[in-house]
Structures are given as C-alpha cells and as structure tokens.
C-alpha cells in the first residue's frame, strides 16, 4: 500500500480505498507546493478516480452573469496536466495507480506559504472548540488566532488561517440564527420572526394572505414586511413578520415556519422582484395585485381627465 505521509506517486502503487489515495495526493500536493482537486467515475461504485492540480483545465469564456460581480477573481486555471489516476482492481479489491504526470506549467508554492493552500487548511474538532471558547470569552478573532499560532510554534503548524477562523464563527452563528441571514461582515441582512400564535392563526386563516413592505421604518432604512390575513371576526391577523434573492429566502422561510402550507391566494404590490420570487416559491398559490397600489399608480402616472 502507498505510504500516506511521504514518497512520490508512482505507477503501480496501491491503496485500500479512494479516501486513502486522496489523503496521499493532498499530502504530496502540500509538500510539492500545489493545490489539488479530484474527478470520480462511478459505475455503482467508484471504478476510477483522477486526482489533478487545482490549475487543471481552463476557465469557461463567454459566460454572461445576471449580476455584476463584487470582485473579479484572478485567473488561476493554466491547463496544468499534473495528475494521478487510480483504477479499481476488482480482483484485489483495491485501487492501483495507472497514470502519473508530475510536471506543472506554473509556479509552485514555497514551503513557507504552502500551508495557506485550501487543501492544506482544516479546523479540527479540538481547534473548533478552542475557537468557540475564545469567542464566547470575548477574545477577538485576530488575538485568538495569534495565541493559537504561538501554542503550536507558528502559523505553519496551525492548519488554518485567521480568515478560516472567522468563517467558522460566522457559520456557527448562521446555524444558531434559525431564521436569519448574515453578510460577510457578520451583520444581519435578513431576519424572519413568527411566534406560536402566528403559526396557529396561519393554520386556520392562511388561505388568503397579503404581503406588503414598508421602507425606511428606522434610521437604518431597513425594509420591514408583514404577512397579514383576516380571522373569523374580520380582524387583521399577523402571520409573520428586497432583491429577488432576499424575497425568495423570506418566502421559503415563511413556508418552513408554517410546515410547508402554501396560501391559496397572496396579494402584494407591483414589485417585480417580489413577483418573481412568488412565482418560484408559492407554486400552488394565486398571485393577485393589491387594488390600493394599482389605484395609487393610476393617480401617479395618469393625468386627470379634463
């Protein structure tokens, strides 16, 4: 069997399973100074697998995005041919290396920076516990990361960066925020709230729902949307507290809070992003427009008769 922690890939090496071969390739990439990816071929089980350099292939050209990217990513694909291919030996019940290319067509990482590659960074369970304990104690992420580096003799031995640490904490907070979303700076961008009475009211009176947003309700100018309906006494009932994506998230969260029950009819204003999101999420509902907003637009856009 191939040795995981040392050695250079060679044709004829054997591994017990694909995971063992992948660990070997990741370790070799860390020592040689290149990041890694893999491609599998399935036939009921993995019959062959090709481990490649992360610079393998070329970025697709001519792709039109429906939005303007916040940051243009640098070109990293150089069509590098470095690879290791393993094939299943059905008789021996193991995987054999059948093809090797070790030459790269790009610069490799220095030993001082190879620990920063994505394949070489991982937060263990013990490290995750220490990160969360430091955060709960009020220690800032940068200070906690510097302390962890000192404890293991430097960042090369730590296994993760300060950015990885912040991403871990953000993911933890995202999981704890059951009906909410955070941005890259860990600010709340969307939040949904519904108490037990709202859930019960929707179960009984949620056939027809109206949804409207009121903008600029506070100094932060955050949009606030309320799902409203009428109970048996014709009293207004609240069922739960704007790009298409944010509305899609809101409507999907609304359904999740109400056990997936869709209203028969939902009335909204003429917001285009809201209408697009409703078409995606409320597939069983009739979407109607609020007559109040229609009349307001008539007064606003049509001149009076003389």
Outline:
With 306 residues, this protein is α+β, with helices and mostly antiparallel strands. It has helices at residues 18-32, 125-136, 141-151, 162-176, 196-205, 244-257, 272-281, 291-301, and strands spanning 14-15, 36-42, 46-53, 83-89, 94-101, 180-182, 188-191, 208-214, 224-230, 236-240, 265-268, 286-289. The longest helix is centred in the N-terminal third of the chain and has 15 residues, at 18-32.
Describe what you observe in this structure:
- There is one protein chain.
- The protein has 8 helices and 12 strands.
- By secondary structure, the protein is α+β, with helices and mostly antiparallel strands.
- The chain folds into 3 domains: 1-112, no CATH class; 121-176, no CATH class; 190-301, 2-Layer Sandwich (Nucleotidyltransferase, domain 5).
- The strands form 3 sheets. A 5-stranded antiparallel sheet has the order 1-5-4-3-2, covered by helices on one side.
- Strand 6 (180-182) and strand 7 form a beta hairpin.
- The radius of gyration is 28 Å and the shape is elongated.
- The chain starts with 13 loop residues before the first strand and ends in a 5-residue tail after the last helix.
- The mean pLDDT is 79.
- Residues 24-109 form the FAR1 domain.
- Residues 208-297 form the MULE transposase domain.
């Amino acid at each position: 069997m191939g040795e995981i922690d040392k050695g250079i890939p060679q044709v004829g090496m054997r591994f017990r399973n694909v995971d063992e071969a992948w660990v070997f390739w990741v370790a070799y990439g860390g020592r040689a100074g290149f990041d890694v990816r893999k491609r599998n071929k399935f036939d009921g089980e993995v019959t062959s697998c090709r481990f490649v350099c992360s610079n393998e292939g070329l970025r697709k050209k001519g792709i039109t995005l429906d939005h303007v990217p916040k940051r243009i990513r640098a070109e990293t694909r150089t069509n590098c041919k470095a690879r290791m291919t393993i094939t299943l030996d059905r008789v021996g019940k193991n995987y054999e290396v059948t093809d090797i290319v070790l030459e790269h067509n790009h610069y490799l990482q220095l030993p001082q920076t190879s620990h920063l590659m994505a394949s070489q960074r991982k937060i263990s369970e013990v490290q995750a516990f220490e990160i969360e304990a430091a955060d709960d104690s009020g220690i800032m992420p940068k200070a906690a990361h510097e302390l962890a580096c000192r404890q293991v003799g430097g960042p090369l031995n730590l296994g993760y960066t300060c950015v990885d640490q912040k991403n871990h904490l953000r993911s933890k907070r995202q999981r704890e925020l059951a009906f909410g979303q955070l941005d890259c700076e860990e600010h709340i961008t969307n939040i949904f709230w519904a108490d037990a009475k709202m859930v019960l009211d929707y179960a009984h009176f949620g056939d027809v729902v109206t949804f409207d947003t009121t903008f600029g309700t506070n100094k932060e100018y955050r949009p606030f949307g309320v799902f409203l309906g009428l109970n048996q006494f014709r009293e207004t009932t609240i069922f739960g507290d704007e790009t298409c994506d944010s509305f899609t998230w809101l409507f999907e969260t609304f359904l999740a809070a109400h056990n997936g029950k869709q209203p028969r009819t939902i009335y909204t204003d003429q917001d285009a992003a809201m209408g697009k999101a409703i078409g995606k999420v409320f597939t069983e509902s009739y979407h109607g427009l609020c007559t109040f907003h229609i009349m307001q637009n008539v007064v606003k856009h049509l001149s009076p008769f003389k």
